[in-house]
Amino acid sequence: xxxxxxxxxxxxxLTNIKxxxxxxxFILHKKLDSAKHYLAKLEQDSYYNILEKLVKKQExxxxxxxxxxxxxxxxxxxxxxxxxxxxxxxxLKPADKNINLDYFEIIWIQVYKLRDEISIDEAAEKQxxxxxxxxxxxxxxxxxxxxxxKSTTHPIVMYQIQGDVENGKKLCLDGLQKSEELEDKELQxxxxxYLSDFLILEGKLQEYIDVCKKSLLLENQLQxxxxxxxxxxxxxxxxxxxxxxHNDEVIELINILYEEEDRRIHTYSLYAQLIASLDKxxxxxxxxxxxxxxxNVKDLxxxxxxxxxxxxxxxTYSLLNFSSYALSAHDYKDLxxxYKDLxxxxxxxxxxxxxxxxxxxxxxxxAIKEKQKEVELEKVKTKLYAIIAILAFVLFIITLxxxxxxxxxxxxxxxxxxxxxxxxxxxxxxxxxxHHRVKNNFQIVSSLLELQTxxxxxxxxxxxxxxxxxxxxxxxxxxQKLYQNxxxxxxxxxxxxxxxxxxxxxxxxxxxxxxxxxxxNVMFDVDTAIPLGLIINEIITNSYKYAFKSDKKNxxxxxxxxxxxxxxxxxxxDNGPGLSTDINVKKAKSLGLxxxxxxxxxxxxxxxxxxxxxxxxxxxxxxxxxxxxVN
Length: 631
Known about the structure:
The chain is an alpha+beta fold. Among the domains are: 1-42; 255-350, no CATH class; 353-445; 489-630, Histidine kinase-like ATPase, C-terminal domain (Heat Shock Protein 90, 2-Layer Sandwich), CATH 3.30.565. 70% of the residues lie in helices and 6% in strands. The chain is built from 26 helices and seven strands. It has a five-stranded mixed beta sheet, with helices on one face. A hairpin with a 5-residue loop joins strand 4 (554-562) and strand 5. Helix 9 (153-162) runs antiparallel to helix 10. Keywords: Membrane, Transmembrane, Transmembrane helix. It comes from Polaribacter reichenbachii. The chain crosses the membrane at residues 384-403. This is Histidine kinase/HSP90-like ATPase domain-containing protein.
């Protein structure tokens, strides 16, 4: 009977939560009649009163708006773009003489969410509004000081994106010191959280762990945990798993996250990361398999992938990446490779050309709108001239006034032309900055892969991790060249020479190679450069690994030129033993050759491999313009 009562209570609670979600969704989409229907089913509490006010279109306090928008922001099933639009439309800036901290918190969270989920540009505009609001009050007021301090989190994150450890860390330490002087524990937690990000970039693992533990101690002193509580736990779990020997603490921390319905989806990558570090016969591994009702690691990661289908791209990459490590550690090598390939595809989607265009087009749209206004003003001006010509004598005085107005409008048009020119220049700088940030993010990924390799003992897994790191470096080098080049094109002769230098330094202790490169006056855009760079990286790496020996004279020939039919020809040839006759290059099972074949198809090209004095690869492909003609 008791069990039946418990089950009934649980079912009622779940139904109440689902009905609450429905009411929130209908309010968000302005379907108040439907919201009113489900509101009648809810239990009456303080949050019910807020929802009732919204349904009845009654005025809310800023505290009530904060509670409502925060609940929407924390729901995985709600698109934050819709929440942001709701805030912009309904939460107006207060006219109070003193700063309203509830309004500040609403906009501060909006900046955070826009930056991480929507657009850095939109976040920057909101940040400006927030700073203008803060600076409109007495700067010696204690609440204003706290708000001003908290608003520095946006520039801190921007320093992190740019990889500027020195300035970002300094801002964190200054904020932490002032928070301690104010004896504000929540502010201390915030700055400790961002400080930990810079410590991991510096490779200071123990300091990173100490900062996370200090933050959790402060959390225990708060009446309610901060919004950084669960993220800090995730950071500490990652550090403990990487350090090894803290499995009990890891399980305890993961369970805290798992018990929270909104955070449960983030625990699957943490479980996969832990599984990758456990022995095959570990009792803890068996407990985890039993928890998720599966019998092996292969079924476990498949289940994680299904449960985590609603994760964003960054969290999806983490889940796939750690699943790959877990599969590799438990002898599912082929499946591990496929998960690693999916993870790399996720990275490519995250840092694709579309990302650059979405950021740059924001400024372009503004320029177009300003130009349209200018055209409309010119039409108005022409109409005014016609009227003036007809009524010149009768309306002489009015004509003078109109001419004066036209002069003023001309000045405005001139100012707008200057603004348009400045906007276009900002767009060019923005595109360069995007390439710079993408390069920095690839370098962060490369550094993370390098950190991961230190914990890998399996030689094959270590080799795969190093190859993945090389591929990320080759893509980072593309974006570095784009950032440095004003034309937006990449000089491939220079790129190949830098790539050869990187690879030769890696294998310098084993071999000495005489390299001949012929690729003058060959320039490519990013859509051609990235796959072509990966192809060259894979083939040259293969030569260094299998063709070159320390006891003989090694040579490598790379030729890249444009054919008369406007296609391009790439030849890479070494003087090694060549590929085995049993290997069909186009049907090869190795990840490297599969990747080469796929990338050649992406370039609408053909691949031919022969063995004469060594392995010789001939690749014919099309640049972006020729591929567009074919499409």
